[in-house]
Amino acid sequence: MIKAMTAVLRIATFLLLTYALLSLSACESKKDSQTAANEQQEIKEKFDKQRDEVKAELEELGRSIDQKIKSIEEKMKDASDETRRRLTEANQELQEERIKVDRSLDEVKNATEETWSDVREGTRKTFQEVKSDFTELGNRIADLLDSESK
Question: How many angstroms separate the CA atoms of 145 and 2, rounded?
Fold first, then answer.
């Protein structure tokens, strides 16, 4: 009888220890899951922040181009035929640049975390090209208008 009781106590002790170990490992699992969830949330927040910053830069560039287009349209009203022709060409170039900005903006808006790296790099390149072209075109227009007023 004592042997039976000892065996039952050993089995009960074994079951309690097994339950305790399983409970502890479940707690560890929950901590790991929570850590992974926190890391995923941080990645998403970083992605959203970067996307919003790039989007804001593109929108600002688009507004600048729109303002220049309106300015050119106003100046065309009083310009000579030759100047009007050249301003029309400049205006068309600006509209093409605006289309590039809009395409990049669409890519940024539709980017996912998986595609973000490629989209960001392509958008950065487009942004720099358009900004450079925009500055160059602005200088050409200023020179044209200066020569017109002389």
Answer: 111
Q: Report d(CA 123, CA 50) in Å as an integer.
A: 12
Q: How far apart are CA 116 and CA 114, in angstroms?
A: 6
Taking the alpha carbons of 84, 87, 89, 94 in that order, is the dihedral positive or negative?
negative
Task: Name residue, tokens 């399983």.
Answer: 22
Task: Give me the sign of the Cα torsion angle 19, 20, 23, 24.
Answer: negative
pLDDT tens sequence across 99-146:
999 999 999 999 888 898 898 899 999 989 999 998 998 888 888 878
**Which residues 6+ apart lie within 8 Å of 103 measured at CB?**
126
| Overall pTM > 0.85 | no
Radius of gyration of the chain (CA): 33
Query: Where does residue 131 rank: exposed (0-12), middle (13-18), buried (19+ CB within 10 A)?
Result: middle
**Is residue 111 helix, strand or coil?**
coil
